[in-house]
Design a protein that fits this description.
This protein is 22% helix and 34% strand. By secondary structure, the chain is an alpha/beta fold. It has one domain: Rossmann fold (3-Layer(aba) Sandwich), CATH 3.40.50. The structure holds inosinic acid and magnesium ion (MG). The site of magnesium ion (MG) has 3 residues, from loops.
């Protein structure tokens, strides 16, 4: 595996994203909605930089098997909070094709929130096709398959503290 983003760089960047969100949402009470499973490490780090009155919820959707998108979305757990009239911040580990996040943004927008914004740790900007602008981006990365910081290859490597590029010899 090849190092792409170090633990130290991630921590610095997450702190500054948290600061930006604190300023942008001053006086508001946003709900952070994480997309499981991959978001949980970023969610835990980002949330602890937030000094607002916040709620946290999760959805579980899946478009990936192995290291490629299946092109269909499976909902395993829907949102639990009442998001009517609320400010929503979707928290995602990575935006690749954009398929997952487009689906969720559109779906949440149809549930009558006051606003929906998106925070992603990683963004494959060159390949993503989005219907909206991403508000908070940790790092733009090249379109390579990465693991660590919550991201998996077939449920492995989520615990790595840095972001690594998975190379062909790592797949067995
Ligand atoms: P999208 O729908 O193609 O944008 O893919 C989004 C989901 O696919 C993410 O939430 C991840 O779970 C997974 N994914 C996309 N790229 C990677 C990667 O490089 N490593 C690990 N998981 C990925
Ligand atoms: Mg994911």
């Amino acid at each position: 595996m090849k190092l792409l983003i170090s633990e130290n760089d991630i921590q610095k960047r997450v702190k500054s994203l948290g600061k930006q969100i604190n300023e942008d949402y001053k006086g508001k009470k946003p709900i952070f909605v994480g997309i499981l499973n991959g978001c949980y490490v970023f969610m835990a780090d980002l949330l602890r930089e937030i000094n607002l009155d916040v709620e946290v919820d999760f959805v579980k959707i899946r478009s990936y098997e192995g290291n490629s998108s299946t092109g269909t979305i499976k909902f395993r757990k829907d949102i639990s909070a009442n998001i009517d009239g609320r400010d929503i911040i979707i928290v995602e580990d990575i935006i690749d094709s954009g398929f997952t996040i487009n689906f969720l943004v559109n779906r949440l927008r149809n549930s009558g929130p006051k606003s929906v914004s998106v925070a992603t740790a990683l963004f494959k900007k060159e390949v993503a096709k989005l219907d909206f602008k991403v508000d908070y981006v940790g790092f733009e990365i090249p379109p390579e398959f990465v693991v660590g910081y919550g991201l998996d290859y077939d449920e492995k490597y989520r615990q790595l503290k840095s972001v690594m590029v998975l190379e062909p010899e790592d797949i067995n």
